[in-house]
Write a structure and sequence with these properties.
CATH architecture of the largest domain: Sandwich
Strand order of the largest sheet: 6-9-14-11-12
């Protein structure tokens, strides 16, 4: 069979046997031998050059065909292209571009990967180098810190690489884990190091996570933490490359997030661009309530101390008289959250109470910084700013209703207390009788010398200006007033008259501004004076009974005394017959003052021909109290004593 088409054969053996060669890119190399005698062997051989970049195994199979037989195939011959000296790898935030790289050292390498576009998503330094850096923000030590590392296999065959990490100056106890596509990288060959296979001339990404010990912390200004990650070719351990994992960011032992309701103030910002996160309006003396949500963003359970401050931050420091308490969901007062699980939260109420005399916020806002701080890790803390706005409160009060007795032509002096219970200074306002006694003569005086007794040096009062002069009646100021009532000599025994002393509601406030009293329920008191036969004088004294045991702690006095909510006051009304005739059917009347309640069965009547308590309120109630003494002889004394408890 002559396939040469008449052409000169490529070879002949001199015996008429020839061989022709031809090559086709699709069919490959073809040889035609003219004759193969029985018992003889023939072969062909050729050389081929491996192309640059060829990778893996090159397989070759020969076939034979003749006029006497069908087509037959030979065995497959395999050539593995795997030159260990040509293994090359780079490990960086961008990979090296030189595919001819081989046997370089572990030092820094060019940073462009094969395509030039694969970049570490976690690299924060903005530069193409072999350092993956977290340089800003806040990192939690209780959450693994991720680094995305780029690996390039510059070899012409797939290679498997071992990974290792040296912690450098990371905190003692830091461990490193490796993953790709979310799956952990395992040790597949039992050499104790995780490894992955990377295809020839391929760029891949892997995740390296730095697992910091719980409680690790650093500030942003300290020396950076730096660890080294190494990739080593298993086929040739002499071939390796490194990259550095650097942390320049602040690190804390996890975080706590102190918020208001509905996630307000979520995050680390103390204030809302210079303003408080939440502002609550309240009246002086009334609590403003803030909802506080403490979110544990650590990976471990923790408890957090709650604290407050007027500034950022001096724990417990607030303006004088201000009170702050934290209450849990059960209404209990607490200073610690109790244990909160990882990712869980607990809700509390902060009650901020200004004093009754707190200045209105028009004269200055009151800030409250709240803080939640871990009991186990000092670096885990969050602070937020809220604000209380105190409303203006105008409230002048006069107390209390009084009863008295006087002989015909006699004079009785009744005391009252004027108070500024608001938070605004008052310069002027009307004070006077409205209505006055129908037939008795009355006048109102200020105890200007503070001796608790009406005398000629005291000042006649028709307005608040008569009390304060050029000054003002400031919050918490008090003034003792005397109502001097004279009964006409023609007054018949048993005649009783009443009058009211009223404090006006249209007042003059700071700077001459007009203000209106906001609580008119305490702007007036009623005086009742009854004419009795004979000449009987009536005085009233009071004494503190702090523990409410029924025994006065101090001597009875008509002067004002200081007492706290919940404490008791003992009142004693004394009638003395200073005349020369009997005072018949003597009765002493009084009433439970405002802001107090009666201590049940505490009234005691003494003196006279027959002493008894004829009227008294129920326990913890209010109302009138009366005693009867029948006949009070000249020079004899009768008393009515009772106790009240100050409201809390």
């Amino acid at each position: 069979m002559n396939e040469g088409g008449g052409a000169t054969p490529d070879h002949t053996n001199g015996q008429g046997h020839t061989i022709f060669y031809s090559y086709d890119e699709t069919l490959g190399l073809k040889a035609v031998i003219s004759t193969l005698p029985v018992g003889k062997t023939s072969y062909i051989e050729f050389e081929a050059s491996v192309a640059d970049g060829a990778a893996g195994t090159i397989a070759n199979t020969g076939t034979i065909d003749s006029d006497q037989t069908g087509q037959q195939s030979s065995n497959e011959a395999r050539l593995t292209v795997d030159n260990g000296d040509a293994i090359a790898v780079t490990l960086a935030d961008r990979s090296a571009a030189d595919p001819a790289y081989a046997g370089r050292s572990k030092s820094d390498l060019p940073d462009d990967n094969l395509g030039g576009s694969v970049i570490s998503a976690t690299d924060g330094d903005g530069e193409a180098n072999d350092t993956i850096a977290h340089v800003a923000g806040y990192l939690s030590s209780s959450t693994p810190v991720p680094f995305e590392v780029i690996i390039t296999n510059h070899s012409n065959t797939a290679q498997r690489f071992n990974f290792s990490a040296a912690p450098g100056n990371y905190p003692e106890g830091t461990t490193f884990t490796f993953a790709t596509d979310g799956a952990p990288i395992l040790d597949t060959n039992g050499d104790g190091q995780p490894d992955i296979q990377v295809a020839a001339n391929t760029v891949s990404k892997l995740s390296v996570r730095a697992n910091l010990p719980s409680g690790s912390a650093r500030s942003a200004g300290q020396e950076a933490w730096e660890a080294t990650v190494t990739a080593t070719a298993i086929a040739n351990p002499a071939v390796s490359n490194q990259t550095r994992l650097r942390i320049e960011a602040a690190v804390g032992g996890g975080t706590v997030d102190l918020q208001n309701a509905e996630g307000k103030a979520s995050g680390g910002a103390v204030d809302d661009e210079g303003e408080p996160w939440t502002t609550v309006d309240t009246n002086p003396g009334e609590a403003a309530e803030f909802t506080l949500v403490v979110v544990n963003k650590r990976s471990v359970p923790d408890s957090f101390n709650l604290s407050f401050s007027e500034t950022n931050f001096a724990s417990g420091a607030m303006p004088a008289g201000w009170q702050v308490v934290f209450r849990n969901a059960d209404g209990e007062t607490v200073t610690n959250t109790g244990v909160i699980g990882p990712g869980a939260s607990a809700t509390f109420t902060a009650r901020v109470t200004p004093p009754a005399s707190a200045s209105p916020s028009s004269l200055g806002e009151t800030n409250v910084y709240f803080r939640a701080a871990s009991t186990s890790s000092p670096s885990v803390v969050d602070t937020k700013l809220d604000r209380v706005t105190v409303r203006q409160r105008v409230d002048l009060a006069i107390s209390t209703d009084q009863t008295a007795q006087a002989a015909p032509g006699g004079v009785v002096v009744i005391t009252h207390l004027l108070e500024n219970r608001g938070n605004v200074s008052i310069k002027n306002g009307a004070i006077g009788y409205d209505p006055a006694f129908p037939s008795f003569a009355e006048s109102l005086w200020h105890d200007i010398n503070g001796n608790g007794v009406w005398d000629s040096s005291d000042t006649l009062v028709n307005s608040l200006a008569d009390i304060v002069g050029e000054g003002s009646f400031a919050p918490d100021d008090t003034a003792l007033l005397f109502s001097r009532v004279q009964v006409p000599s023609t007054g018949a025994s048993g005649l009783s008259e009443s009058a009211k002393i009223v404090v006006g509601t249209n007042l003059t406030g700071p700077g001459g501004a007009s203000v209106t009293d906001q609580n008119t329920g305490n702007n007036a008191v009623t005086e009742t004076v009854t004419v009795v036969s004979g000449n009987v004088t009536v005085t009233k004294g009071q004494a503190l009974d702090a523990d409410c045991n029924g025994e006065a702690d101090v001597d009875f006095s008509p002067h004002p005394q200081a007492a706290a909510p919940g404490e008791c006051i003992v009142y004693r009304v004394t009638a003395v017959n200073v005349g020369t005739a009997n005072a018949d059917e003597l009765k002493i009347d009084d009433a439970v003052p405002a802001y107090t309640t009666y201590v049940g069965s505490s009234a005691v009547a003494e003196g006279g021909s027959s002493a008894s308590v004829s009227q008294q309120p129920d326990n913890r109630a209010t109302g009138a109290i009366q005693s009867k003494h029948d006949t009070l002889s000249p020079g004899q004394k009768a008393t009515l004593t009772f106790r009240v408890r100050i409201d809390q």
